[in-house]
């Protein structure tokens, strides 16, 4: 049974070459990035949400970078491969040219995220503050904005549930505008990602 041994071996090889896993929260969802680096074969494989995006076999240069896109908005991502010492390597992920940590810190300033359960289904709602785009479970929502006495309201629907993101001034310059999600007349607490 040579076929059985081969498939078992390739499965084990795949497991031993997996060197890094990252989770990246974007407006259209949380994406899982996995990186395989075969330091003896020079193999490099990048998976985004379980789908193979890049495969390179027999790379003689073991350090370098791999660039690809993530998510519906085709966000640029780069994995940097650096030699630390001897045969040890360090793998860092950059999103839009920033370290993952810096990108997520900046993102927390430019987006609001809410996670809620409606009728037994889970939803992740994201507001992009710069464009006022609203995303729900990976889909950009059709919205209607209106000015109200104390700020603005952005209306949209999730299934048969009416949703509204209220934007009101905090009255404090450092805090800026406060965004609140209201679903079926109920305020939803913001989620920190």
Task: Please describe the topology of this protein.
Layout: H1 2-17, E1 18-26, E2 29-37, E3 44-48, E4 51-56, E5 64-70, E6 75-85, E7 88-95, E8 98-99, H2 100-110, E9 111-118, E10 121-128, E11 133-136, E12 139-140, E13 144-148, E14 151-158, E15 161-169, E16 177-183, E17 186-188
Antiparallel strand pairs: 1-2, 2-3, 3-4, 5-6, 6-7, 7-8, 9-10, 10-11, 11-12, 13-14, 14-15, 15-16, 16-17
Descriptive keywords:
193 residues; 4-stranded antiparallel β-sheet; mainly beta
Q: Could you explain how this protein is built, in words?
A:
The chain is mainly beta and 193 residues long. The chain is built from two helices and 17 strands. It has helices at residues 2-17, 100-110, and strands at 18-26, 29-37, 44-48, 51-56, 64-70, 75-85, 88-95, 98-99, 111-118, 121-128, 133-136, 139-140, 144-148, 151-158, 161-169, 177-183, 186-188. It has a five-stranded antiparallel β-sheet with strand order 13-14-15-16-17, with no helix packed on it. A four-stranded antiparallel β-sheet has the order 1-2-3-4. Strands 5-6-7-8 form a four-stranded antiparallel β-sheet. A hairpin with a 2-residue loop joins β16 (177-183) and β17 (186-188). The radius of gyration is 22 Å and the shape is elongated. It starts with a helix and ends in a 5-residue tail after the last strand.
